[in-house]
Amino acid sequence: MLWIFRYFLVFVSFTNLVTAEDQCRIEINIRGMALKGFVFKRMTVAAPHICDILCEREITCQSYNFNRKEQICELNNRTKDARPENFRSDPAWFYIRRLNGRAPLGSIPKLPARSCREIKASEGKNTASNKYWLDPSGTGKAVLVYFSPLYPYVSNFDENIVNNVKVHYSVNHFFFWISSKPKSIFTDDTANIDECTNGTHKCDMNADCHNTPGSYKCTCKDGFQGNGTDCTQRFNTAVFTNLGKSDSQGPDSVGSHYTGQDHNGQVTVSSGIQLWNVPHTGEYRIEAVGASGGYGQNSVINGGRGARMIGNFMLTKDEIISILVGQKGIRGGVNKNTGGGGGGTFVVRGNNIPLIIAGGGGGIKNMSEQHPGCDASINTTGNAGSNSPLGSGGSNGHGGDANGQSPGGGGGGFYGNGQGASSGSGRGGKGYLQGGRGGHARGGFGGGGGFRSGNRGAGGGGGYSGGNGAADEQFSCGGGGGSFNNGTNQQNECCFNSNKHGRVIITFLQ
Predict the structure, then answer these.
(1) pLDDT in tens, the chain (510 residues)
(2) For 296-310, b where at least 16 C-beta lie within 10 A, e where not — what string?
(3) Residue 112 and residue 110: Cα distance in Å, rounded?
(4) Residue 33 pairs with which residues in a beta bridge?
(5) C-alpha angle 424/458/292, rounded to 5°?
(6) Distance (Å, rounded) from C-alpha 398 to C-alpha 393?
(7) Looking at the record, which segments are called Disordered (predicted)?
(8) Spatial CA neighbour of 290 closest among 254, 326, 266, 247
């Protein structure tokens, strides 16, 4: 029987592997530092010791980063010794190397090293094995290589005959042979392969490739962030506005309003609602502000005030968040002594799941001083205006009522429309699920109720639940809309926004 043998030989020369400082190595947590770019698992934990336990359960875990404030644990598949260039200053974090049961870098297929130099840096004097797993190009396919002690000190390029196979070797190089044909799969210094030039690198299209001895480094370009192999547009804070639109209908397009801002290119508009493509998975702080109500020219008070609602939310990369920015109610061109209700501001994720909603202020006919019933509520129930008890507007996400003589329209809620006249002016605002259009006349986009023409009743504010429309009385106002907040670390304020459109501010936390 004919047997065919294929020989796989790898020769490596390591020098100066043991130093005095390697004789005793003690790890402590290093405050204000974190290893970046080698996180393979990220989670929220209650305490640092849990992060240590989780690291010990993962065979590939070499070290971890911990954020005390946010209680975030990041497991790394490298140590700071292996990748000192990625060990960065960050005051919110601390770093610690795994102390118990750490698998040496390159010792198992699941934990291949990128180069000989990386193994030496990571393991120091502990590089005693004669074989390691390497993945020089980062393809995910590890190769088992053998470190030969036969030629530990070779200063110049040479040729030898080993087992009748011609081999090439030099200091800090190893070569890979199939039969008698040598193929260099990695060189550490002299015969370096330039992956950046030959196109074998894995850098993102928005990253720059930098050749290094035996490997390469990917760095995201200006304006982008990530680990180099996955770069997305840098995002810190974005402010969503009414896009220059006023009155009862929403904007038609983004135009140039967000040019040069962090969310430029991430937003489209559909039926007045802005659709934002989330750029990164992580925690975001969202601030929603409802629009103010309109007011008659004789009123001392400038319309009911919109609410401000703030909370933290976990969002996922590429999910679509729907944002309706409320528009303020307006007084009429002829009917100058009354005003429409302000629109609520809505932030909603897929399948119409509300995240945070800020109620809009009620419209005012004439008021000489602030009245809490005119302002938006931080509770889910809308207000009833100046002539009814607080908290008796729309409830459970439905629209507000329109009671009394010649009233303005009730504000729209999340699920349903506000009450109002069936024709002419004084119509209720539309609910969010019905499109959020403001009621006729001059109710703000976001469900603001319209005022009744002839300088009569003012409209209620839109929101999670709509505020009631006001009856036609000399001193009166529509009720502010209700609000909703499903976030953590909440900060809510009922009476924040006066005589302005609403807005949404989204900040990426981590």
Answers:
(1) 333 333 333 333 333 333 333 334 445 789 999 999 899 999 999 888 899 899 999 999 999 999 988 899 999 999 999 999 999 999 999 999 998 889 999 889 999 998 888 888 888 877 656 778 888 877 788 888 875 444 333 323 233 323 333 333 333 444 433 233 333 334 343 446 788 988 889 999 989 999 988 889 999 988 788 899 988 777 889 999 999 999 899 999 999 999 989 999 999 999 999 999 998 899 999 999 999 999 999 999 999 999 999 999 999 999 999 999 999 999 988 889 999 999 999 999 999 999 999 999 999 999 999 999 999 999 999 999 987 666 689 999 999 999 889 999 999 999 999 999 888 899 999 999 999 999 999 999 999 999 999 999 999 999 999 999 999 999 999 999 999 999 999 999 999 999 999 999 999 997
(2) beebebbbbbbbbbb
(3) 6
(4) 89
(5) 120
(6) 9
(7) 368-452
(8) 326
pTM for the whole structure: 0.60
Distances (CA, A) of 449 to 53, 330, 422: 56, 11, 13
* Residue 448 contacts residue 342 (beta carbons within 8 Å): yes
| Radius of gyration, CA atoms only, the chain | 33
In the numeric block, the tokens 């999340």 are attached to 414
**Both tokens assigned to 83:** 């990748």
Query: How far is it, in rounded angstroms, from Cα 162 to Cα 146?
Result: 14
Contact (Cβ atoms closer than 8 angstroms) between residue 191 and residue 211: no
How many helices and strands in the chain, by DSSP H and E?
Answer: 3, 28
CA dihedral 375, 378, 381, 386 (to 10 degrees): -20
Whole-angstrom CA distances from 342 to 120, 242, 369 are 66, 13, 18
Residue type, 310: I
Q: Which residues of 80-91 are buried (b: 16+ CB within 10 A; e: fewer)?
A: bbbbeebbeeee
Cβ(82)–Cβ(102) below 8 Å: no
As to burial, measured by CB atoms within 10 angstroms (0-12 exposed, 13-18 middle, 19+ buried), residue 486 is: middle
